[in-house]
Design brief:
Among the domains are: 146-239 and 274-335, Bacterial extracellular solute-binding protein, family 7 (D-Maltodextrin-Binding Protein, domain 2, 3-Layer(aba) Sandwich), CATH 3.40.190.170; 412-659, 3-Layer(aba) Sandwich (D-Maltodextrin-Binding Protein, domain 2), CATH 3.40.190. Helices cover 45% and strands 16% of the residues. It has 24 helices and 22 strands. The strands form three sheets. Strands 13, 14, 15, 16, 17, 18, 19, 20, 21 and 22 form a ten-stranded mixed beta sheet that branches. Strands 5, 6, 7, 8, 9, 10 and 12 form a seven-stranded mixed beta sheet that branches.
């Protein structure tokens, strides 16, 4: 047996060990919260935080326990952090306002008035005073998650302050309850998880809650009226907190890693909240509720009541409360003048065009590109971007690489596999079976192997800004796919020459075409099936012509869809501009990774809803395809060039190192 064959066999066994190893290990740190996993933005942002910490500190493991699965009730999580039962928690801080009245500052009605105002408080004098107060109470605030919300009613139409007399109302905070009590309402103090049962039983008439909770806790099922949008009196802080004892035990380097991860989680959370109101309005209307925004006159009336009741009571409750309230207002006053001013640009506005092949606003690659654009434009006001989805610039999917090389196209969301005829080393980003899960491929961030891929890209006229990895599977017209033996005779699109080698060895007939042509080819009968991303299968409506699908993890199909910029454009940027682009790219990567967490689920649900049969990809299927891949695609890739062999070897070493249980 040759050295190369022994290496391939060893690699196969090593990858098998990784796949067989438990996906979740007992974490050193636990995050507890009360909301649904993957559905609620607080849970999703917590997962971004955990992933970013673990990427920076591989020996630190963070487990997330949603739906109060540790058996600790929401209102008890503060005490659980103090006594060491948990290390971290996400919960509305006003839950403990009955014990620590100063925490009512996180839900005072009408202040802050908007999420934009709340963000102005970040890193302000108020933030410093608030953090110091929290640490004095045994906790450290890591994130700055403010949630806007609305008011819902079980069966009576509501509006301004004069419409609540005699109603039982859940506001969530004692000071806000003072305002409703002054109006003749009957306040009830319960966590948000008890709102839906209260409305259902009739023990609760009205509830104030975040848009996020109103949807994820299915409160719309028992609400006939809702005031959502417009001006709001409900804006609350639900931060990710860590025990001060645990925080103080961290090294400076560990604290820095936690803070960097928190910044990325903050950015992702803020983006999610921008859609929360729209989603809440649409959900309540679909459920039959009458929905309208709060008018400005109603808002003004609420502020007068709040000033005379909640605000006054809070400010007079203690010296610490007075300091927090006054510093909050002063921070609002100081925020605008203290914003850093930018020197006028000597250039006129620079317009950059981004081209790609996917549907606008539907496909996650388009949405992630818009996240990137927004983040760059917020940092560099003299830059503007034009996104051209679905090849509206009339540049073909494959040809975009040439256009960027020549400098005729500024940027693209590009599938590097399309360029492998010119740069065969790019096939590394698509080798079948090499990247069995999103978690494993995300662990490569900052590694030497991605530096090598970047060097190849730079040498060929492009620069990779964001690394968006998409998992995928099979969809076919006429036969269920499992192991390699099941594809014999099928005309299949693999997406890359190396994939095609493997498919041909299995007896399939490879068909080369870009992913945006799969649906038409299956409809015409020229194609029996395809491997591509779950995202593409859904956004390009392949479900219209597929009768069988195969999905699951570990998988053999993981592609890199990179946000790429022409090297000529990149080289003209200043160092500050490059930093702004890279920061925006990092945020878009976290956003995109979050969308891919449920991509497989959406793929399965979308296809089975229209009658397709779902087949789960098994570990045995994966191992059979992996053996075939190493005999064909991997062996062929090694022969491309000494650089390709070195890159694959480095990839395997990095995956093994970063996936090893610690």
């Amino acid at each position: 047996m040759s050295t190369r064959d022994r290496w391939c066999q060893t690699t196969l066994l090593a990858l098998a060990v990784i796949i067989l190893a438990p996906i979740a290990m007992a974490g050193q740190l636990r995050i507890a919260h009360q909301w649904d996993p993957d559905v609620d933005a607080r849970d999703r942002a917590a997962r971004i935080f955990a992933a970013e910490v673990e990427r920076r500190l591989p020996q630190t493991k963070i487990s997330i326990h949603a739906r109060s699965s540790l058996g600790i009730k929401p209102v008890e999580q503060y005490q659980a952090m103090l006594d060491g039962r948990i290390e971290m928690s996400i919960f509305p801080m006003f839950y403990i306002a009955p014990q620590i009245p100063e925490f009512s500052i996180t839900l005072l009605p009408g202040v802050p008035a908007t999420t934009e105002q709340a963000q102005l408080l970040k890193n302000s004098a108020f933030h410093e005073h608030f953090q110091a107060f929290c640490e004095g109470k045994g906790i450290h605030v890591l994130t700055w998650w403010w949630l806007p919300g609305g008011i819902v009613s079980r069966d009576r139409e509501i509006g301004g302050p004069n419409t609540y007399k005699g109603l039982t109302v859940r506001s969530g905070d004692p000071n806000t309850d003072l305002m409703f009590a002054a109006l003749g309402a009957i306040p009830q103090i319960i966590p948000s998880t008890e709102i839906r049962p209260g409305l259902q039983k009739g023990t609760l008439d009205v509830a104030l809650a975040s848009f996020e909770s109103l949807v994820s806790l299915r409160i719309f099922e028992h609400s006939k009226f809702a005031i959502l949008g417009g001006n709001t009196i409900y804006l609350s802080l639900h931060p990710l907190m860590i025990s001060a004892k645990v925080w103080n035990a961290l090294s400076d380097a560990e604290k820095k890693a936690f803070e960097e991860a928190a910044e990325l989680a903050d950015a992702a959370f803020d983006l999610n909240q921008r859609d929360a109101e729209h989603q809440a309005v649409a959900t309540f209307r679909s459920a039959g509720a009458t929905v309208r925004p709060m008018t400005f006159d109603e808002y003004q009336d609420w502020l007068h009541i709040a000033n005379a009741t909640s605000w006054r009571s809070y400010r007079n409750s203690s010296d610490a409360a007075r300091l927090l309230f006054d510093s909050m207002l002063q921070s609002f006053v100081n925020s605008r003048p203290n914003q850093p001013t930018r020197e006028p640009s000597v250039h006129t506005t620079k317009t950059i065009r981004i081209s790609h092949q996917w549907p606008a606003n539907i496909d996650a690659r388009d949405r992630a590109a818009r996240v990137f654009v927004k983040e760059v434009e917020s940092r560099l006001p003299n830059y503007s971007f034009q996104i051209h989805p679905e090849l509206t610039l009339n540049i073909g999917s494959v040809e975009q690489f040439d256009e960027m090389q020549s400098g005729k196209l500024d940027m693209s969301v590009y599938v590097l596999a399309y360029a492998v005829k010119k740069v065969p080393e790019f096939s590394l980003a698509y080798l079948p079976g090499l990247y069995p899960s999103v978690e494993i491929v995300r662990s490569l961030k900052g590694s030497q192997i991605l530096d090598q891929v970047q060097a190849v890209a730079n040498a060929n006229g492009i620069h990779i800004l964001a690394w968006w990895w998409v998992p995928g599977g099979f969809a076919t017209r006429n036969r269920e796919v499992g192991g390699p033996e099941s594809v014999k005779g099928l005309r299949l699109r693999g997406g890359d020459p190396m994939f095609d080698l493997m498919l041909k060895k299995a007896g399939a007939i490879p068909v080369a075409l870009p992913s945006n042509e799969i649906n038409a080819a299956m409809k015409s009968g020229d194609l029996d099936g395809a491997l591509t991303s779950y995202e593409t299968f859904v956004s390009t409506r392949v479900f219209e012509n597929a009768k069988f699908i195969t999905a699951g993890s570990p998988g053999i199909w993981m592609f890199l869809n990179a946000l790429v910029i022409s090297r000529s454009v990149w080289d003209e940027l200043t160092d500050d501009e490059k930093t702004a682009f890279e920061e925006a790219a990092d945020i878009s990567e976290d956003y995109f990774a979050e969308t891919q967490r449920d991509a497989e689920k959406r793929f399965i649900e979308t296809f089975t809803r229209v009658g397709a049969k779902y087949n789960a990809f098994t570990y045995e299927n994966y191992l059979a395809w992996l053996r075939l891949a190493q005999e064909t695609a991997w062996k062929e890739y090694i022969a491309v060039s000494p650089q390709a062999e070195s890159m694959l070897t480095e990839s395997i070493a990095t995956i093994l190192e970063r996936s090893r249980p610690r």
